[in-house]
Amino acid sequence: MKLRSDFKVRLGPTPTEFDKMPEVCRREVMEWDREMVRLGEALMGLMCEGLGLDAGRLKELTCLEGRIMASHYYPYCPQPELTMGLTPHTDPGVLTVVLQNQVGGLQVKHDGAWLDLNPVPGALVINVGDMLQVMSNDEYKSVEHRVAGNPCREARVSIAVFFNPGDRHSLFGPLPELISAEKPAVYKSFTFDEFMTRFFTKELDGKSLINFFKLSQ
Ligand SMILES: O=C(O)CCC(=O)C(=O)O
Ligand SMILES: [Fe+2]
Known about the structure:
Layout: E1 5-10, H1 26-50, H2 57-60, E2 66-74, E3 84-89, E4 95-100, E5 106-110, E6 113-116, E7 125-128, H3 130-135, E8 145-148, E9 156-164, E10 171-172, E11 190-191, H4 192-201, H5 208-212
Antiparallel strand pairs: 1-2, 2-9, 3-8, 4-7, 4-9, 5-6, 5-8, 10-11
The structure holds 2-oxoglutaric acid (AKG) and fe (ii) ion.
């Protein structure tokens, strides 16, 4: 049984051509993207400041540029306990912004337990992704999340925008400013291309991908 349908659009660094997008929503997608870039820049600035870095550090590293929008449609599921809307995973990129409708089902793992992220009208969910965990040298942790099977007669709809490094071929690793004798690098450096190749060849199971790039301590 198909649990959900997805609609994915590449927004950057090279956007999908306007006339290749479904006509019914192309203007809205472009407008949403413009707002997401503004929001992403503000969020990344705050995350940098939280690490004691210049507010523009992540932007300089092209982290605003690689954007993908994924819309998910989770239909009603008569036996939700037998299935999942989306299996547990962490998002591979830097940050993710998620808009969800009123149905609910998104859960995050906290202290080993799954907590419901009940929808709040007008609110967005912001996830820290694996690349931000790596670049922050474990100061920020990517969040494990999943979506339960939908028990409501109404469909669940969500729209995620993933912020990834636009530069897929340079090496990324813990930022040098955050490495010291007391806090040595936790991860080796790798390209985002290499990271995504591994992401797509493994089963999505929690945090195993990021662990692959850990240096043995
Ligand atoms: O549907 C959601 O709320 C979450 C989607 C998600 O986690 C993803 O696309 O990576
Ligand atoms: Fe996700």
